[in-house]
Amino acid sequence: MTGIWAIVLAAGESRRMGSPKMILPYEGKTIIERVLDNILVSDVDQVVTILGCYREEILKITGNYPVKHFYNSNYKEGMFTSVQCGFRFLPDDFRAVILFLGDQPMAETAVINRLINAFGESDKGIAIPVFDNKRGHPLLVSSKYRNEIITLDEPDGMRGFLRNHPDDILEVETVNPSILKDIDTREEYLREISEHDLHSNPTGSST
User: Fold this and answer.
1) What is the pTM of this model?
2) Of 64, 74, 80, 154, which has the fewest CB atoms closer than 10 Å, so is most exposed?
3) What gap in Å lies between CA 171 and CA 134, rounded to an integer?
4) pLDDT of 151-164, one tens digit each?
């Protein structure tokens, strides 16, 4: 038991996509399923999924997964309200939380475990994966920040929170550029699908 929980942020309205992106096909499943698959085989102990818009559609897909689902009634006020919602539902004895974007199915299990291990070996309270000197997702946050995050009135959300604690951040180097990607638009979705197909079948030959 690592004492590490995951919060999957899946409450958004998918405005730029024009349809509920969490349930779009990805690698034989859906985007949200691939996110959960990557987390559930990692060293994370428990998973909380925060729902908002399209909650019924997402629940039809994720309802059988061994994860907890909570509804953020304030989802229209931005992603940070889902972060706060997730922190409210966590038990008192958790050690840290990893915040996942529900539209980042390419976040590999190896990156998740690297974050957890680096956090365990450090005295820092925040761990962020880095590729090519750029910070990405997911983001790990110590339980010591729970009350601050729940009560924080910060228009910039987690960006503002991170600005408040520059000396408590551990940057964890990775070799995975996918930490910098998420899927917001149809163009990004089609490009990610195309890149994945190319990597899976680099010769372009049919199977």
Assistant:
1) 0.89
2) 64
3) 10
4) 998 788 999 999 99
